[in-house]
Write a structure and sequence with these properties.
Blueprint (H helix, E strand, L loop, with lengths): L1 E5 L4 H11 L4 E5 L17 E4 L7 H9 L4 E4 L9 H4 L4 E3 L6 H17 L1 H9 L17 E5 L3 H12 L3 E5 L10 E3 L2 H7 L2 E4 L13 H6 L4 E5 L8 H9 L3 E6 L21 H8 L3 E3 L8 H19 L25
Parallel strand pairs: 1-2, 1-3, 3-4, 4-5, 6-7, 6-9, 7-8, 9-10, 10-11, 11-12
The chain binds 1,4-dihydronicotinamide adenine dinucleotide.
Length: 342
């Protein structure tokens, strides 16, 4: 039986992993704490660590896990910008869940966009207090507007189809354009910024994409542009975004992620004073809607995450190739596809 140390556990994770634990012959110990330099020793005696988006998987953490016998880190998410891959190489294998429900994330992006544009968040509060006035709630039609989609992978493509359903014109930026996409015009990021009424981010956070939305790109944008970010907070310079909103250049922002979300998102901070003035000001803006990195949170996605993660763990225990293994060489790797990364 494979022993798994499961970090940053939430009740919805436990429900879905517990449903499958017996079938995959694993024993799971659920830790509520995030994985970081202080909590890494908790994994001593376990074969596998299961981690999530805001765990800090640094060189120190990797070395400590390795000394304590851990040989696999199973990320129960798609993104992996929080891992020191070079330190892990040759010691600890890493797997992820590359796709669990692109629909969950794309539909959440659309829900956020519609809410911001049609002011649903204000209307909800008003009608709960029997305030049926419409003053200040004027929105705009999505039909006929130009949406700029940054990243046309699995989620970006589903989002593009939703946008087409609304009758929007689609511009896209991706270093690897998908030529098979119909009714989508690829362009540079600069052109996309200049021509879009709405911009939605669906690319990974890498050193190249960090702060791709900054003062310079915001200066290029149309007045009143709406920004949607359901990818990673670090894609957007939050201070520049706040300035763009204060100057009225940005007409609305719908954010499921935030660059300093690590210690805040997924936790109840309602009775705590926290130090992040930028986030507090963003949340206080009437035209900003923030959700707490919940775009993935559907039953279908959670089930698929548990199933794919446990299948990778079973393949690891059986000495097999793990199709969702990743390492720092993956982008340029020439090894046979039916091998492990090392
Ligand atoms: P994917 O790997 O299928 O597609 C990513 C696309 O981005 C690829 O086409 C790639 O060529 C493109 N890309 C890479 N670097 C780029 C750059 N600098 N500029 C523009 N495009 C670039 O990934 P998928 O499944 O579509 O996920 C996209 C992102 O969504 C993930 O990286 C993750 O950060 C985020 N995500 C957020 C979730 C949430 O709950 N909020 C849940 C799952 C993913």
């Amino acid at each position: 039986m494979t022993r798994i140390a499961f970090f940053d556990t939430k009740p919805y994770d436990k429900t879905h992993f517990d449903q499958l634990a017996a079938e995959y012959d694993v024993h799971i110990h659920y830790f509520e704490s995030k994985l970081n330099e202080n909590t890494a020793p908790l994994a001593k005696g376990y074969d596998v660590v299961c981690a999530f988006v805001n765990d800090h998987i640094t060189e120190f953490v990797i070395n400590r896990l390795y000394e304590d016998g851990v040989r696999l880190i199973a990320m129960r998410c798609a993104g992996y910008n929080n891992i020191d891959f070079k330190s892990a190489f040759g010691k600890i294998h890493i797997v992820r869940v590359p796709a669990y429900s692109p629909y969950a994330v794309a539909e959440h992006a659309m829900a956020l966009l519609l809410s911001v544009v049609r002011q649903i968040h204000h209307a909800y509060v008003r009608t709960r207090e029997f305030n049926f006035s419409l003053n200040g709630l004027v929105g705009f039609d999505l039909h006929g507007k130009t949406i700029g989609v940054v990243g046309t992978g699995k989620i970006g493509k589903v989002f593009i189809n939703l946008c087409k359903g609304f009758g929007m014109k689609v511009l896209a930026f991706d270093p690897y354009p998908d030529k098979s996409l119909e009714d989508v015009r690829y362009c540079t990021l600069e052109e996309l910024c200049k021509e879009s009424d709405i911009i939605s981010l669906h690319c990974p956070l890498t050193p190249d994409s960090e702060h791709m939305i900054d003062r310079k790109s915001i200066a290029l944008m149309k007045p009143g542009v709406v920004l949607v970010n359901t990818s990673r907070g670090g894609l957007v310079d939050s201070q520049a975004l706040l300035e763009g909103i204060k100057s009225r250049k940005i007409g609305g922002a719908a954010l499921d992620v935030y660059e300093e979300e690590g210690e805040l998102f997924y936790e109840d901070k309602s009775a705590t004073l926290f130090d992040d003035d930028t986030l507090m000001l963003l949340i206080a803006m009437p035209n900003v809607l923030v959700t707490s990195h919940q775009a993935f949170l559907t039953d279908e996605a959670l089930h698929n995450i548990a199933e794919t993660t446990l299948q990778s763990i079973r393949d690891f225990a059986d000495g097999k190739v793990m199709p969702h293994e990743i390492c720092y060489q993956c982008a340029t790797c020439t090894k046979e596809p039916n091998q492990r990364c090392f």
